[in-house]
Design a protein that fits this description.
Layout (H helix, E strand, L loop, with lengths): L1 H31 L6 H17 L4 H24 L8 H24 L13 E4 L2 E4 H23 L1 H11 L1 H6 L4 H24 L10 H14 L5 H20 L5 H15 L14
Helix pairs in contact: 1-5, 1-8, 1-9, 1-10, 2-3, 2-4, 2-8, 3-8, 5-6, 6-8, 9-10, 10-11
Length: 291
């Protein structure tokens, strides 16, 4: 029973973090058609900004939302500075990969210069521990498991029930038609990046509450998020959400039965098999959109 509980809890927890990261990647891809390789740095920066605000004396429940809003601004600025000028150019996907990698490296080294290499940790959402099925877990992790689906559901409601969300979906489905009906496509590009950055920053805050932070803390989650979007399909946001939890359970099971050493190799085996059998992703839809 304890083994099953450990795998289920680990899968839900890891899947929640992967879903937050993967949805941001998918949102940018479906809207603009580019990969943002600075997405992992957004995660790190959100955690560090939250830590700095707490150090300045703000209560955690005030500092965390402010950090998320700041990260939305960072995402908007990065889109306007290194992505928007390249839209419409040949080989934009490859060029944006290079520019976002460069921007991510600049931000990462800036964080190292400002905050130093020493590990840091921000307050947990809820302090304390409990036992579930014979497995000791923190209340912080339980809070993340509960909060993440609510955030993803709110995002789905935004995309499907609001005029702004429907405008984003329209741009994702047909950019030319969106221009013709008068939508401000440039502003919607910035909004997609802002939402993605805020989700990544929130994932960083979640991670920083139970694990020590470092300027390179976003590298591994970015890699896992890429595996998730390839496995689930990047043409929508629902596919990566389902895939995130499946990958989370798979990783938790592999870690329990085969150890941490073999888990990355098995994950990449799943990635390679998916690309060979169904390169568009297991849950991919036939057309690009945000459903």
């Amino acid at each position: 029973m304890s083994a099953l509980a450990e795998i289920l809890f680990g899968g839900l927890f890891q899947g929640s973090l992967y879903a937050m990261m993967a949805v941001g990647l998918a949102l940018v891809w479906t809207t603009i058609g580019v990969f943002n390789f600075s997405h992992g740095v957004f995660m790190m920066l959100g955690a560090y900004i939250a830590w700095q605000l707490v150090e300045l004396g703000l209560p955690a429940m005030i500092a965390f939302p402010i950090a998320v809003v700041v990260m939305a601004g960072v995402g908007w600025i990065l889109q306007a500075s290194v992505v928007r000028p390249l839209i419409g150019r040949p080989n934009i996907v490859l060029v944006v990969v290079i520019t976002t990698l460069a921007a991510g490296s600049l931000i990462e080294n800036g964080a190292l210069t400002i905050w130093g290499p020493r590990s840091k940790q921000i307050p947990a959402l809820i302090a304390g521990n409990t036992t579930i099925g014979g497995v000791g877990v923190s209340l912080h992790q339980i809070a993340i498991i509960v909060i993440t689906p609510l955030i993803l559901a709110a995002l789905w409601m935004f995309l499907n029930r609001t005029r702004l969300g429907l405008a984003l979906r329209a741009v994702a489905q047909n950019e030319d038609a969106s221009h013709l009906v008068g939508l401000n496509v440039t502003a919607l590009y910035g909004l997609a990046f802002a939402i993605a950055a805020s989700l990544a920053g929130l994932a960083g805050i979640f991670m920083g509450g139970y694990r020590f932070m470092s300027p390179v803390m976003g590298s591994d989650p970015l890699l896992k998020a890429l595996i998730v979007v390839v496995f689930g399909g990047i043409s929508s946001i629902s596919g990566p959400i389902f895939a995130a939890y499946l990958i989370g359970f798979f990783e938790a099971a592999c870690s329990y039965y085969f150890g941490l050493y073999w888990t990355p190799a098995l994950l990449f085996g799943v990635l390679i098999l998916t690309l060979m059998v169904r390169p568009e992703g297991i849950f991919a839809s036939r057309s690009r959109g945000l459903a």
